[in-house]
Amino acid sequence: MALSKETIERLGDELFAALRAREMLRPLTEREPSIDIDDAYRISLRMLERRTAEGERVVGKKIGVTSKPVQDMLGVHQPDFGFLTDTMHVDNGAVVSLSAAKLIQPRAEGEIAFVLKKDLRGPGVTEDQVIDATDYVSPCFEIVDSRIRDWKIKIQDTVADNASCGVFVLGPDRVDPRSLDLAAVKMNILKNGEHIAAGLGSAVQGHPATAVAWLANTLGRFGIPFLAGEIILSGSLAPLLPITPGDRFEMTLDGIGGASIGFEN
Prior knowledge:
Layout: H1 5-21, H2 28-31, H3 37-53, E1 58-64, H4 68-74, E2 80-85, E3 89-90, E4 95-97, E5 107-116, H5 127-133, E6 134-144, H6 155-160, E7 165-170, E8 186-191, E9 194-200, H7 208-221, E10 231-236, E11 241-242, E12 248-253, E13 257-264
Parallel strand pairs: 1-10, 3-7, 4-13
Antiparallel strand pairs: 1-2, 5-6, 5-10, 5-11, 6-7, 8-9, 8-12, 12-13
């Protein structure tokens, strides 16, 4: 049986309050064992409703937990999905205050971001349609974060928590996705000047456009389209990287470009 409207709103409000207060919650799946993916998505919409009521604006969508290293790290073995708002977007090269950005237990992901020139509405969206609808791809750091204590999440917890999204930064480079093989693109990440991670575009469900098509079709089931101009994050190419104040991350994607982000208290 689906969770009641009152329970959905209560849990969404709890996540919103935890975000604003930089607090962690006991896993939702421990408190509501019957919660399913549809319930979790409805909770995330309640949390989003609270954010947009305060003036935030949706600028895109994201898919996460797409690569095997990330799935193994978190113990979550299917993708999650959520929304990006304008307040999550930080400038390339910025130094982000963890307290000001309301980040609790952040980790860095290196990704390929798709920026759309056409609407897409699932179900039935294909990888070729994703490429056709894409204006350009850019390098991206997504800083994931969880309001669930110690990242003790199941898929329902992370979906409810807006796919564990914190902030994101896009590099300045804009590349036509038709000009390269996105599955073969190699990523390298430096942390404080030392090489710490690498990955290929194929780590994301075999091809980043496959992940984006999955997301379009999954959200299409809920009546949510992709819109022209939106940013779509396709998932991490490597394991998540813990962040502490003073850290600086730099990333390069062969054939696409780079991005960087730093952190302070």
